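Hey, resending since the last one bounced:
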Amino acid sequence: MRSTRALIYKDNLIHNLKTVGSFVRPSVKLCVAVKANGYGTGAVTAARTALETGAACVAVATVDEGIELRENGIACPILLLSLCAEDEMPLAVQHELSPFVCDSDYIAQFEAAAARAQKKIAVHLAVDTGMGRLGCAVAEAASLAQKIAAFPHLALAGTCTHFASSDEASADARAYTERQFADFLRAVQSIADAGVNPGVRHCASSAATCTRPDMQLDMVRVGIAAYGYYGGEADRAAVASRGQVLKPVMTLQTQVSAIRRFYAGQCVSYGRTWKAARDTDIAVLPIGYADGLFRRLSPDCTHEDAQGKNERLHVAINGKRFPVVGRICMDQCMVALGCDSGVRRWDTAVIFGPSESGALHDAADIAKIAGTIPYEIVTSVSKRVPRVVV
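The structure tokens again:
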């Protein structure tokens, strides 16, 4: 196995699911998002663990992701959160995925695919209440629900929306979420008034699940919180108010593959952006941007913080901090050790993870350095990095 690998702490995943689950009312179902390879942890592992921990269903973004779960024995309802291509519809029907639908043409195309397969499939009507990404207008919800109900091969299993700012703590963000929720309830009521059962009503993601019990309705959809990270300050504060914490599920680590002595004035890596100010040992690590360690984490590219200071990426080797130097390459990066560091070839170098893994950073810390969010860090760990469940 490659020395560059992702360790997956199943106990931390269970802990997070139970922590978020403690916010969920007993009558409310739990759906866990396992899209993007289970937020980097491995979709099958994430799905099985979620179901073992009490989830009613899981959610994916692509048909291929749903097929992978079915081929690995995941038999629960699988929600298909994103729109698929026309030629993927027969596969979605064949594998009994439950697509989100939001317009007449798309609904009719799924009816045709289901009719050809002589199957009846469950669909969820997505309503756009302010995310602006996909979904029907609130005013269209009732007529589309009636259309779904009239088709012999479709069943309206649920009605949903997605909040744009529920993870933010500002008064403006809270007010926007309130408006979205009110509009969603109005859409749901219009469906019922039209004589159609709206099915399972769901709108709360991780943050709203933890901060707004009134918005849980019939089901909640938990994503990033399951994997140990907060969507924003709102859910962080809610979890902390109960004396609880989320625990990162993934550790990204590698090994020192070589140690080379550099003398003052020598440069390393592309562009010669780093020059040794004094004699130092350089460790070569077999991990690079093709593994998910972004090139923009290189010290000449790193994000400036609010004070205009460049933060730098460090790795942990034997419990000590060592800075990445030079530009991160596709398959390798370099770390300055200084002299007499005690580091040896094949020592473990930890990029990020929970503290128990020896990491100095978690994915949220790496995201801050890169000027992004932890979602991008964990989902960018490529499939060529083996996942090892520990």
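The longest strand covers residues 154-160.

Sorry for the duplicate.
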